[in-house]
Amino acid sequence: AASAGMVREKYRLPVYPVLVNILRPSCGTAISNSFQSSCLDLQVRQDFQVVNLWDVNVELAFTPSLVVLLPFAPIMLGGNNENVVRRAAIALEAENEFEELEQLLAIFGSCALGLELMEEIMGLQVEALRASPIASVLRQEGEEEGTLEMLKVLIALRFGNVPKSLELVLIFLNTEELQQLVKPLLEAKAIDEFVAFIHKVMEI
Hints:
Oligomer: single chain
Number of helices: 9
C-alpha cells in the first residue's frame, strides 16, 4: 500500500496492485482478491485486481504490444490447440530478441499438448527444453501433485475421508516420500495407525 501510494504521488496517476495467476489451482482452492494483516490494534486490508490467464481470451496475446503474453497462449482461454500454438511460435520467431520467450512457449505448450507435438511444432528449439531449469521445476511439481492426489484417493478409499490435518502434512512431502507411504497405507488397519507411521518414519 505504501509503495502504491508513492508511485501514485510521483506519476499523478491511479495505481492499484494486480495479481496474475498463470496456472489454474487444484479443484476447491479459493483465489483471494485481497490481503489482510494485523499489528496491535491496526487492521490492514489491501485489495488487488486478479487476472486468471485461463479466463483471458488467447487472441489478446497476439496484440502487437503484448508479445510477452505469447508464451502463455497454450494455457489461455481457447489456446489449448495446435493451430494457436503454431501461430504463437511463428509470431515469436519473428521477434529475434525473444529467444527466452520461445523457450517458455515450448514449456507451457508441452504441458498442454505434449512434448512430442511441441518438438514437431518448434523443432530444435525444444531440445533445450529437457534441460531447462523451468521445465524441471514444472515436471517435479506435476509429479508431486499427481502422487499426492493418488495418495489422497487411496486414503479416501481405505478410510472414507482424508482428515484436513493429514492433508496439511502430506503437502510438505516430496514425491519419493509420498510414494513410500503407499505400502504402509494399504497395510494400516485404521487411519490413526497410518498417521502414527507418518509421524514416526518421516519424523514430522
